[in-house]
Design brief:
The protein is mostly helical. The protein folds into 2 domains: 66 residues, no CATH class; 216 residues, no CATH class. Helix content is 82%, strand content 0%. Helix 7 packs antiparallel against helix 9. The radius of gyration is 21 Å and the shape is globular.
Length: 288
Amino acid sequence: MSPAALSSSELFGVFMVLISALSYLNSWFWKLSPTIAMLISGLVIAGGVALADSLGWPTAGRIRALVESIPFGTLVFDWLLSFLLFSSALQIDVKLLFRKRLAVIAMTLITTLITMLLLGAGFYGLLHWAGLPITWPLALLFGAIIAPTDPVAVLPMLQAARVPKTTETLIAGESLFNDGVGVVAFTVLVAAALPAAGEAAQTVTALSTALLFLREMLGGLLAGACLGLVAMVLIRNVPRDENTRLTITLAMVVGGNALAQWLGISAPVTVAASGLMLSALLQLWRRR
């Protein structure tokens, strides 16, 4: 039987049942953070499928082949991440975030870069110790991929720990916008460490890095603010039509993500900024 015998719709159905079952078990027994529980469960399931495949179980081989055919990089980072960031942006206290904007900006820049350097140095030293030499740009590239934190994972843990609202806003705001810094670092390091076939590694200058950062971050902030404003105008015109309002927000996330990719700016920053703008405008509207 070929891998196609297990259709993508069937595999999606199996995944949804597993996710629901694991969420139920975590809610009743494990009581871990939802994202951590899903991560551990996913690793266990993936390990089980790999083990069953190595033992010659045909179904495991078909599942593995079908999963490998899914473009996870495009699916997760180009689309699903936008919905997660938008959801997190709506949960942040926008008024407090604006008051602490300078601290959030400083944390976004400093903590992301320091984390990238530490992870890159650790990865560089570990591989050299294991007899697998690697260049510094490639090691730092690994750090740039791992350094940005996930606001979807951060917010539930902060709320469960009942930290002060100011601390929660600072950490959540930093985790929301550090993707932009990570994208700039990743783009610069890719240009330096992984040139296209037949091309030499590009020379990275302070000016080119600054221009790239301004385009990714400021362009994303501006585009996201405009999208949030447009969405608010449309939502105000249909105050009692929940279906239309939901459709507008979904279109804002998907359309904003596509627009950011077309303009060459940061899609995560664009979507996060649109969510913050919409949340702030909704709060002002409801107070009237």
